[in-house]
């Protein structure tokens, strides 16, 4: 069996993004767990605001292909106004069930202030709407200005938590859906 392939999506456009540092750290955890990894930096993709009336906008096809080629995905977002970044949400809007249905997804959110829990909750809802299998384990990085320095996480416990997220996406990359039941057949779209 080939090594699993994990992609990490950076939902920040800042050149010195702390979210990028955190996603790289999570990918290090996936690498240690035996995966090949790839960082998908949204600065490198031309993803205009999604217009569903236009086919293949910008680099949408390339981004979707990179997601489809992954066995698991790590999504990283800064917290903006209590939610995930618009650039990450737009990138996810360019995707659909074909990219995410049944795929294991790990979430990490970064905030300059207190815990970015609402950003994680919003991102979890989006992923669940795409029928992704979102890990219950997630990583929140509060007060990033005091825990990230020089391109690395300086708080040892926090670094370990983020690396564990990478480990977990590898460990649970192939969650099989439960067999169909009478109830699931009756509850379309749930």
From TrEMBL:
Give a GO molecular function annotation for the protein: FMN binding
- Domain NADPH-dependent FMN reductase-like, residue spans: 5-144
**InterPro entries, sorted:** Flavoprotein-like_sf (IPR029039), FMN_Rdtase-like_dom (IPR005025), NAD(P)H-dep_reductase (IPR050712)
Which Pfam family, an example, fits this chain?
FMN_red
The cofactors it requires, by name, are: [4Fe-4S] cluster
Q: Which domain of life is it from?
A: Archaea
Spell out the GO cellular component terms annotated for this protein, sorted alphabetically and separated by semicolons: cytosol
Q: According to its UniProt record, which protein family does this protein belong to? A: Belongs to the SsuE family. Isf subfamily.
Q: Which PANTHER family match?
A: CHROMATE REDUCTASE, NAD(P)H-DEPENDENT FMN REDUCTASE LOT6
Q: Could you tell me what this protein is called?
A: NAD(P)H-dependent FMN reductase
Q: Which organism is it from?
A: Halopenitus persicus
